[in-house]
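Researcher: Re-running this chain for the archive, since the previous output was lost when a drive failed. Same request as before.
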Amino acid sequence: MLKKILTADNTETFLNEQVGESYHSQTGAVEEALKKYAIPCKIAEKAKSGKVVILDAFFGIGYNSAMAIDIALESNPDCEIEVVGLENDPEIVEKIKEMMPPISFYTHYKNKLTPSVLEFVEGNVRVKILLGDARETITSLGSDYFDAIFYDPFSPKTQPDMWTVEIFREVYRVLKKTGILATYSCARVVRENMSKANLFYDDGPIVGRRGPGTIATKWML
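Model: Regenerated structure tokens:
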């Protein structure tokens, strides 16, 4: 079901053969984590405040949030960082131990996360994965809580139930007023559903594809 593949930046990810999609862009898995998520969500800038809280929605093998932790600690080594991951598939969490991306903090993911151990603290960083259907687990999270949301499910065509108005309303609820959501998709249905959930959207960066990603906030961009 899960097949390891090498992406164009020479970093590995997995292809979910049942779904027919990979967990990261085949143009570069680690590049995507940096340029589609950490940079658009202004992780380095937010780290200077002393605390960053990140929702890694659809955690997968954890590249997106691990990269963000690296960026935050580089910006402010004393920054307190909290990552909450949403993930439905324990098999992909188990695969974390097989990965070796050029992300410094990822060593702790490899050594400490398993399907039965879903939370750890390392220095001033706390990581916790909520295993289950994201439409349900997100409802347990506090309102106005997250500085950044990395929204990275499979595509709207493959996984339409993760791009609905209803789940974006939950995203709106848990996002801080100053928070930023980033996703790779610019599909019309995605942006329309964001708008119906009272999120304001704009183009995100173009990374490894012709179209841009999408960033969204609670305020007019």
